[in-house]
Amino acid sequence: MHEMSLAEGILDIVEDTARAQGASRVLEITLEIGALAGVEVDALRFCLDAILHDSVAADARVSIERLPGRGWCLACAAEVEIAQLYDPCPRCGAYQVTATAGRDMRVKDLLLE
Amino acid sequence: MCTVCGCGQGETRIEGEAHTHRHEHAQEHAHEHVHEHAHEHVHADGTVHRHAHGHAHSHAHIDHDHAHDERELHGHDAHGLVPAHDHDHAGDLHYGLGPAHAHAPGLSQERMVRIERDILGKNDAYATDNRRVFGERGIFAVNLVSSPGSGKTTLLVRTIEALRGELPIAVVEGDQQTSQDADRIRATGAPAIQVNTGKGCHLDAHMVGHAVERLRPAQDSLLMIENVGNLVCPAAFDLGEADKVVILSVTEGEDKPLKYPDMFHAASLMLLNKVDLLPHVAFDVTRCEDYARRVNPRLRILHVSATSGEGMAAWLDWLRAGLAAARARRQDEVAALRRRIAELEARLAEN
Q1: Residue-range definition of the domain harbouring residue B193
Q2: Does any CB of chain B come closer than 8 Å to the CB of residue A76?
Q3: Which of A18, A40, A70, B186 reaches 20 to 30 Å from B328, CA-CA?
Q4: How far is A88 from chain B (nearest CA, A)?
């Protein structure tokens, strides 16, 4: 359920930036969401629809770029790509993979007018 | 709750009182996320609170120099993004990308602004503040997370009873409503403060910062933060704690680590609680531990029963060790400061 909290955080960042840049409208919002960030993208879009309504970004296009999940496999001593926190190593099948990247959640850029 | 939580805006209560706050941020030295804020509490009824909250909130933003701290706070690639355009706002404006391909006063112009700001950045800045306060005071802060009904509060009560008299303990209790849990903790004699999150599904670092200001935990003490019973959202919100401890009871499903991987991944210790009930339930301990370690290979796991007392000694030892480390770090810092003062005094004496 914290997608609503994240949407609030995004709105805060968008409004702050639009104000600081003297923009009248936000046309596009680009987000970067890591595969391991624990974010349900559909739920986030649903919450953003609700929360951006009546804001400076009311009609903004929202694009979400997914960043791949990466982990360090202790058995292989190598970095591997994983889609879930509980995925086994795609090389050796062991479950000794520690996530190293893909937990990020960022507002990457905004198209302002 | 002005930081990140949209699900209970304006409904946070600390011990039954609505609180509003006005804060000015002066953010400097961005790479360390240093974040100073002064709070002014105004107590009011719920309706007034909602209004006052929104107002104070936008005020804080106006006070903010965002063009500045966007770049400083999250200095990712800021220099690499400086456009060919000379503009004194920040190095991250991309003029000339709009249809007009030029920047002319009064002409509507689309422009791309690269900001790269963490969505949870505000919460994380408050968490950094909390962590600094805990570090300076030698406080070992533990964030207890679990589903509702895992036995967190009972475990906490037994823990306090066992350690009372040996070390100082304070408790922050998070629940959507009621102060029943804080009442249970206070009955043990430990100071406790209840944070009601209203519709919120988790504690955030801002709420905990306020609670700690009110609670004033002793120097070199143990601070137990009992989060809202929820295995999903609290995983994402750093409170400034040293460790997250996830509690799973054997009356729940053994596959919860796979169903709620984020929480088990974020935790450093898992307490498998209610092990006294193992003879009566179909719970495969080995499989549960295997699942938990798939999600988090470094997870430590202890078996406990708050009711029978089984396994509690190892848990108490883990807490003692964490507190000893926090105290040692504080003492090291104080010793370093003393050495520095002595050096400076010696230098002054030479002149």
Answers
A1: 122-329
A2: no
A3: B186
A4: 7
In tens, the pLDDT along B151-179 reads 999 999 999 999 999 999 999 999 888 88
ipTM > 0.85?
no
A31-89 pLDDT tens trace: 999 999 888 899 999 999 999 998 999 999 999 999 999 999 999 999 999 998 888 99
Which domain CATH number covers B258? 3.40.50.300
Question: Smallest Cβ distance to A107: which of B89, B117, B204?
Answer: B117
Model-wide pTM > 0.80: no
Distance, in Å, from the CA atom of A94 to the CA atom of A75, rounded to the nearest integer, reads: 7
* Structural domain includes residue B10: no
Six-digit token pair at A11? Answer: 């709105």
- Residue type (1 letter), B300: R
* Cα nearest neighbour of A35 on chain B: B262
Considering the domain A3-68+102-112 in this protein, what is its CATH number?
A: 3.30.2320.50
To which residue do tokens 């609030």 refer?
A8
* Number of domains forming the structure of chain B: 1
Q: What is the spatial distance between Cα B207 and Cα B198, in angstroms, rounded to a whole number? A: 12
Closest CB from B5, B116, B258 relative to A8: B5
In a domain, B144, yes or no: yes
Judge whether A98 is closer than 8 Å to chain B, CB to CB.
Answer: yes
